[in-house]
Amino acid sequence: MSKKQLIMETALDLFAKQGFEATSVQQITDRCGISKGAFYLSFKSKDELILALIDYFMMQVTSDIDYIVRVTKDEELLYQFYFSIYQTFHNHSQFAKVILKEPSLTLNKELILKLNYYDKLIGNTILMMIERLYGEAVKETKYDLLYSIKGFMSAYSQLFIYYNIPIDLNMLVESLVEKTNLLAKHTTVPFVSKEMNDIFQFKQPMNEEMKEQILEMIENKLEEMEESIEKESLVLLKGQLLEPTLSRAVVRGLLENIRNQPHCKWIAYLLRQYFE
Amino acid sequence: MSKKQLIMETALDLFAKQGFEATSVQQITDRCGISKGAFYLSFKSKDELILALIDYFMMQVTSDIDYIVRVTKDEELLYQFYFSIYQTFHNHSQFAKVILKEPSLTLNKELILKLNYYDKLIGNTILMMIERLYGEAVKETKYDLLYSIKGFMSAYSQLFIYYNIPIDLNMLVESLVEKTNLLAKHTTVPFVSKEMNDIFQFKQPMNEEMKEQILEMIENKLEEMEESIEKESLVLLKGQLLEPTLSRAVVRGLLENIRNQPHCKWIAYLLRQYFE
DNA sequence: TTGACAAATGACTAATCAGTCATTATTATA
DNA sequence: TATAATAATGACTGATTAGTCATTTGTCAA
Question: Of A179, B135, B199, B222, which sees the most CB atoms within 10 A?
């Protein structure tokens, strides 16, 4: 494990237990068995550490959910969606604690923006799922459905983030699927309008700047990769980004190729957004 | 306004903006136009201040909701319930920010216990409402309904706590009433069981110790009250607490008498719990 | 073995902040 | 008005902590 990763995992544990502000850099480095100075070789500041933590986990979560929504067939989608959400909460419960408990951290505007940004991305994915599953039927109420789903996620997550109760995940998910379907099929009174939702999630359309960012990420990634199918795929995708020549099917296949390369999930997610 | 109150309101603003840890006592006292020493005449420590803030607001909220649930007739109950919740969020949005953003505050176990305590009380009130409205029909699913309602509360509260969007409160409430009724009437797959819920909300039955506490509060209150119907009512209620002689109807009336006396809401709430 | 480079150290600095207390100001009382 | 009692002050203390940097340790290639 790299030093950076060691610091991140150690810090995560401590933040989950004590909170961000109450955890000193000294405490982190003591626990890691390294010196304080070594910490500053990996991170420019303590703030940079928490931002890195958020990126590290939220990228995973966001791209996982997006992938599920895109590849799962309709009949199983809602089930798989909730299943993946709660599995993630379970696998990364330490991180979930930090996020759910500490959206304050008012010191840092950047942090709030970051959390907002990922919340927006996940919201868009959920909306996409709602539209696919229920179509025109929920035209008026889809934003309410989005908020209801978010409500279910937060209310039920508390149940097993703080306590280690053995959970029948299948039962939980079945229960939420039923509730979601009920609301989708019978709700008639809308409250959240498109405009209201947009105030929070004003769309950031993919633009040239974004393209540059993706390109840069790909190039960094390519440098550290060894020759392989994955690398070849990424090279082709880079070409497609610069000048679109490949068919949609080929692109889809190439994305599938790189998806399971560690750290490539996020690039795959961004490219998927860009190409559509 | 008393000095204590001035400090509490000033601190609330600052905590809502900057968070608890990031706000220094100096900052609070500067804003109040008093010295740092004066702060410590009103509060033993900074921690005591946040605990006092939580008590001050949560007592109001808890007793308000409980009152609504007890006096509103079934047909309007759900509407009035949500209406009161969101009105409270709106009126005390600064406080809501502190609470919703800062359930961490990991320094202080006492604080977490306190928040848990009020959450439990409110949960019990909501459960009482659910049982009254839907009865046996939701025997299996009432705890899920409780979590769904909590989910709605938190998801929708975000909408207008952080942004000052003009809100059609009536529409919001209608929309949540419909959702709640839908879930209550059609949910068949339960997930949260009584036992699971009890792990969080293990009942603290009213006991002798509680009785002593209420008595002490009443006596403190009586000292600062002037002769009035309210004082007379409170004296009678104190008698009833020591030795029950009055009829239920009389007790109910007396409680109604003191309910609107400032600061008596909480005593009324506790007495209501005790007498039933 | 030597020397050059990089990695790691931890004592130190400067800043912050909760809480104290000797002193001063204000108010109530006689 | 004089005296006592109470309220308020703010400089100070001690503790903590983010971040720095001169020094040491480790690692190679020559």
Answer: A179
Among all residues of chain A, which has the CA nearest to that of B147?
Answer: A155
> Does residue A222 share a domain with residue A178?
no
Q: Does the distance separating the beta carbons of B104 and A19 come in below 8 Å?
A: yes
Q: Give me the CA A40–C1' D28 separation in Å, rounded.
A: 25
Calpha distance A178→A186 (Å, rounded): 12
| Domains contained in chain A, number | 3
Q: In terms of C-beta density within 10 A (0-12 exposed, 13-18 middle, 19 or more buried), how is residue B156 classed?
A: buried
Chain A nearest CA to B138, separation (Å):
14
Residue type, B23: T
Q: What is the pLDDT of residues A36-83, one digit of tens each?
A: 989 999 999 998 999 999 898 898 889 999 999 999 999 999 999 999
CB-CB neighbors (< 8 A) of A154 in chain B: 151, 154-155
Place of tokens 């105030």: A199
Enter the DSSP assignment of A144. H
Q: CB-side exposure of A83: number of CA atoms within 13 Å?
A: 12
Instruction: Provide the residue range defining the domain that includes A212.
Output: 208-275
